[in-house]
Amino acid sequence: MTTQRWILVFIFSLASVLGTVELFKTKEAQTYTCRTIGSGIVQPFKGESYYVRSDCPFTLTSFTVNRGEYSVTIRRGHNGLLVQVEIIINKVTTLLQNGHVVVQNKSVSLPYDHTYQHIVKYGIYTKLRSSLFPFTVTWHNVDGGINSLWVTLESELSTDMCGLCGKQNLAGHRHELIRDSQLHDLRCKTRDPVLQKNHVCSQFFRRTKSCLQDNNSHFHQLCRDNIFGFENSHEVFCPFFQEVASQCNQSRINRFWRRLTRCEKPSCPGDLIYEKKGPAFIPSCSNPDPAPFYQELTETCVCPRGERNLSL
C-alpha cells in the first residue's frame, strides 16, 4: 500500500473514531434542588414553593435508582424546627436528631466515610453525599433542631418519585402533595395557615418588588405563614429572609435586610470569622491542601487572614 493510501486510511479511521466518540457524548445533567426552611416552607424540585404547618412525619422525597432506594423523611417539633430527619441510601439509614448523626443505629463523628455515603462538615453546614448516585443532603444545625435542609439531584427526576418535593414532570397541588406525603401518626396534627399580618414581613417585601416582581405577594404570604407563632424565633424566620435576599442578590437589599429583621450573621467558634462565600473546608495543619471537592464556596467560618486552624 502506498504512503498516500496509508494516509487516507488513517484519516478515515480517525474520523470514524471521532464520530463514535461524538455518539457517546451525554448531555450535561440537570441539577434539581428541593428545600425546606423555617417552620414549614417547601420549595419543590419543580413548581411553586408552598407552606405546611405540621408536627407530623412527612416523606420529603423518595425514589429508586438501579434498584437502590433513596429517601428523606422529616418531622418538625412544636418549635417549628426539624427535630428528626431520616435519610436512606441503598438500605443504609442515617438519622439526624439532637445535633447528632446516627448511621445504622451508631452515633458517628465527622468526617464519616462509608461504602455508600460520605458525611462532612461543609462550611457552616453539614453535607451527606451518596457515592452511588449524584444525590446530596445538606442541612444547618441550630439550637433546638435544623432550620434549613435541601436535597440536590444532578440527574433527571425518577419516574417513581414522591414526597413534598414533588413528582416527576408534575409539580402537584399543595394539598395533594401534603396529603400523599404525610406518614401515619395519630398523635400529630397538620393545620391550615393562619391569615395574619406581620410588620417585619410587610416592611421587607415592600423593598423586594423590583426583584421578585409578580412573585412578591406569594413570597410575602409565605413569610407571614412561616413567622406566625414564631415571631421571637430567629432560628425559624431568618433562613427565609436570607434565602430571598440571596435570590435577589441586590446590594440595596443586602444592606438593609439584617438590620430590618434583626437577623445576626451566623456565629463562629473561637477566633473564626464568618464569611458569606468562602471555602467549604478550612485548610488546617492536618489537611493543608483540601481536595477540589472541598474548594466549593459556601457560607463558612474562616481563620483570620494569614492564619491556619490549629485545632484540626
TrEMBL record:
Record protein name field: Spiggin A alternatively spliced variant 4
One Pfam family matching this protein: VWD
GO cellular component: extracellular matrix; extracellular space
Tree of life domain: Eukaryota
Cited InterPro entries: Mucin_vWF_Thrombospondin_sf, Ser_inhib-like_sf, VWF/SSPO/ZAN-like_Cys-rich_dom, VWF_type-D
Residues of the signal peptide: 1-19
SUPFAM superfamilies per UniProt: Serine protease inhibitors (SSF57567)
Domain spans labelled VWFD: 32-202
Coiled coil ranges: none
Keyword tags: Disulfide bond, Glycoprotein, Signal
